[in-house]
Amino acid sequence: MNTDRHAIVRVIGVRKTFTMGKVEVEALKGVDLEIFAGEYISIMGPSGSGKSTLFNMIGGLDKPSDGKVFIDEVDISQLDAYELAWLRNRKIGYIFQTFNLIPVMTALENVTLPMTFAGMNEDEARDKGMELLELVGLAKRHHHKPLELSGGQQQRVAIARSLANDPAIILADEPTGNLDLTTGEEAIELLRSLSQDRGVTIISATHDYKMLNVSDRVVWIRDGMVDRVEKREELDISVGGIGETAGAEA
Amino acid sequence: MEKRVFGPEGKGGVRRAIVLPWSKSLEISFKSLRVRFFRSMITVSSLVLAVSFLSFVLSSLNVAEGVLASGGADAAKRLLDAGYDVQVDAGTVAMTPKERWIVFLSMLVCAVGIVNAQLMSVTERFREIGVMKCLGALDAMVLRLFLLEAAMQGLAGSLAGALLGALFASLTGWIRFGWDALAFMPASGFALSVAISVGGGLMLSLAGVLYPAVVAARMRPINAIRAEH
Description:
The complex is a heterodimer of chains A (250) and B (229).
Chain A: E1 7-20, E2 23-36, E3 40-44, H1 51-58, E4 66-71, E5 74-75, H2 81-91, E6 92-95, H3 107-117, H4 122-135, H5 151-162, E7 169-173, H6 181-198, E8 201-206, E9 217-222, E10 225-231, H7 232-239, H8 244-249
Chain B: H1 22-35, H2 37-81, E1 85-87, E2 92-94, H3 97-124, H4 126-134, H5 139-177, H6 179-183, H7 187-218, H8 221-226
Antiparallel strand pairs in B: 1-2
């Protein structure tokens, strides 16, 4: 990786311990990771590997028990509530496995909510919201509530929402986990084009092998540690049989 | 094309506030009430009952004062017989201790009911609150949304209750003591009774939502998102 590139996320010696009843579980056992601006990173690993925990740390949703997470060289454990809210609002876009749209709001309202928080006026927010829905191909359904949309459509609304304030980083937690093969591929394709066209850094936690095709690098997590980090070029060799399409792409 | 988090403006830019204008807060709270209309009606109905009882008791006193003003000593005796606590010299009628207790208890039961209903509403909306926080909402905004909802519920419920109670007090007064009781009733006192009932109901509704709203506002987004699994 080019050393002159800007490291947008730097994870240093992060450990996380959860207390479950009386038992202490170490979810992360000292993780070091650097993610560069504009990269498309997949964090792969079986469930229970600590992948989601690491992911939450990077997103500022959880604090490490030990170690530090820097976003753009700022230690996020040092941020106060306002700064964290600001970071979540303008600089990080979240996409969840279960879509997590607000059920009482229409698709458009869901997309414009972060803009309202950011202080954008209503007309501007509506225009931009429609633009983003157009981008994900749902402009015609802007007045529908989430429950009136299919899973794939809900996830596309969620992708539009994550882009509301032109974030620098998009965190996608199992974005294809609740989608079928085709809609999952559409969502992945959408994310890939966003990372290319808009220069957004995309970090996604997943165990969907379709994600490998589009990732610049894949971080494998096992037992709370980084098992290995692979670039896309190396993938088809190590993944072997699984990566038939990955091989074709490379 | 690379995007940076803290950009050229540096960390200082972070200080730009996250906002939620009042008009938008009102709109959001109003919508979430409308979506859960049946639910909020149940919360409101307990408030309507308690407030209408308070308003009934207070306006009945006004009606009794009307009777006193219209009929002098003879009326005072009739009121005493009817169980009112009459101060003949001052020309006023007060609540009996028993009435005071019942009013107090009804308000207490109502407050507990509101806390219960609002806690449930918070639990139901864990995920929604968590998502809002992930999108950058501050604790104060979540608190404000819940307080606004409670204020709207409180205002609607108290108004309905206060008018209902006052109406019934007037009706029973008219039936028991005749038209004179209403004609001589002090209008300002009557208005005050209604106002006190509305104010009391509103306070009750806000007090009842305070704890649930603080629970909601303090929730960390990570727990809220997890709550669904």
